Amino acid sequence: MPGKSNTKKKWRRSTGLLAGVLLVAGSFVAGGCGGKTSAGGPAAGGPMAMPVQVEVAESIRIPETTEYLSVLKSRQSAMINPQVEGQITKILVKSGDNVSAGTPLLQIDPLKQRATVSGQEAARAAQQATVQLAKVNLERAQKLYGAGVISKQDLDNAESTYDSAEAQLKSLSDQVEQQKVELHYYDVSAPVDGIVGDIPVRVGDRVTVSTLLTTVDLPGALEAYVYIPADRAKDLRLGLPVRLLDENGNSVSDTHITFVSPQVETDTQTVLAKAAVANPTAKLRIAQQVRAQVTWGAHNGPVVPVLAVLRINGQAFVFVAVHEGNGTVARQRLLKLGDTIGNDYAVLDGLKAGDHIIVSGTQFLQDGMPVMEQIQKATRQGDDKGDAVR
Q: For residues 195 and 220, what is the distance between their CA atoms, to the nearest angstrom?
């Protein structure tokens, strides 16, 4: 009958499920009673230990470094300021031009100065006529005095007039030369061979003796200008190693501090430090910004592989293998990290040399989970890597 057939099927299904449950339970009981815990494995009846690769934390020499923004400047750079005031009428070069000493760069309106020179020259010409007349009068007086026609006083007056006229002529001649020299300043020329820098002024601008017109920089050796915060200035000293890095973090030059300013910049509260930069291939440019990594010193401390570090809510953690009871478990450690050194982080706090750092399977671990260590030799600076099962 249909009713009896359905009842039989349900009874068989229930019987099968019950048998399966009993079989699984029997296997667990057999494993718990008859099995033995292996070295590094779980306690009797506990979960199986997860095999993990472990690296022993080493203590190495860790440099203490800080990066700052640096600007490269020429070690032989001429700042071009006008020596006279006036309005710019011509700019004869452009930024980046190679110029030799004496090449005209700019011109400041010289019309007023030329008029001054012309006036001084006219005054000198008039004085020359006065001197010539005084000389004729002196010669006449000398003849008359020799003939006994005039007195000695009249002769002395003639000599005095001539001497005064000559002195006045010399003064006017000096003034003319001075004004001519000043007229030369209205044509601004390159003082040395080099490359023209930025030209911040334009035709029509009025400039004074404090206005920067441009720079002329000699290619080759440079200086890195590094601005160190005042609170770190106490650690500044000549000879500190400096490594210049490009935007990708690659080293472009290794140098050292060659100058430390004795004063603090009031606006930025920084201290200027300079480092000489050899630039034989001219890869570095004047006014280029680079990162300057200053090495303050070094200390011994542990390091941890970058791949072993977990980031949780902005904090760094690592799992270490710890012996507890009869087995080994994974314990999570909070770390305070320093700079990267190759493929490792310098550890400032949370780890010590000799700790067993778990470097594999960390995404599957939980705090307190049993693990079985496979010691992995750290690979640094070309060392071979070897594994030993513990």
A: 11
Which domain-ending residue is among 281, 298, 315? 298
Largest Cα–Cα distance in the chain?
182
Residues of the domain holding 186: 84-207
Q: What's phi and psi for 54, nearest 5 deg?
A: -125, 140
Q: CA-to-CA distance for 38 and 36, rounded, in angstroms? A: 6
Q: Mind listing the pLDDT tens digit for each residue in 40-99?
A: 444 445 678 889 999 898 888 888 888 899 999 887 788 899 999 999 999 999 988 999
Q: Model's pTM, two decimal places?
A: 0.52
| Single residue among 276, 298, 320 that ends a domain in this structure | 298
Which CATH number is 242's domain given?
Answer: 2.40.30.170
How far is it, in rounded angstroms, from Cα 240 to Cα 245?
16
The three-state DSSP-derived secondary structure of 288-307 is CEEEEEEEEEEEEEEEEEHH
- Counted domains in the chain: 3
